[in-house]
Write a structure and sequence with these properties.
This protein is mainly alpha-helical and about 120 residues long. The protein is built from six helices and two strands; from the N terminus they run H-H-H-E-E-H-H-H. Strands 1-2 form a two-stranded antiparallel ribbon.
Length: about 120
């Protein structure tokens, strides 16, 4: 699954919002990320073309199997890395911000090795 950081962020946001809201719409994503709705619309078009999401006639956004797999992996990385950094003494705000950066660049192999060797 080779997607860029922006796509990963959008997919992760859709996943998170789907846990909080009954339905996810572009406006919800725009509000969550602080982006213009037009920017989100372009991103949703790209994710739809790559078959990572489907958008209903009512504008409800749902992750496809591939989109959910990517979102789950990024969210898992984010949660784990945030908790690990906090455990190391990093403030929660900094840990969350740093985890968001690390989660996109760390390889699958390195992340799995860290998870295997770190007890949270």
């Amino acid at each position: 699954m080779n997607v860029n950081e922006s796509a990963e962020n959008y997919l992760e946001t859709i996943l998170i919002l789907s846990h909080r809201l009954p339905v996810v719409r572009s406006v919800d994503i725009a509000n969550e990320l602080g982006f213009k709705k037009s920017s989100v619309s372009i991103a949703m078009k790209n994710l739809r073309e790559k078959k990572h999401i489907v958008v209903s006639d009512s504008g409800f956004i749902t992750l496809t199997e591939s989109g959910k797999a990517i979102a789950d992996e990024i969210y898992d990385r984010h949660q784990f890395l945030s908790a690990w950094l906090i455990q190391l003494g990093v403030s929660p705000e900094v840990a969350t911000n740093d985890a968001c950066k690390i989660e996109h660049v760390i390889s699958h192999e390195s992340f799995e090795a860290i998870k295997k060797n770190i007890k949270l």
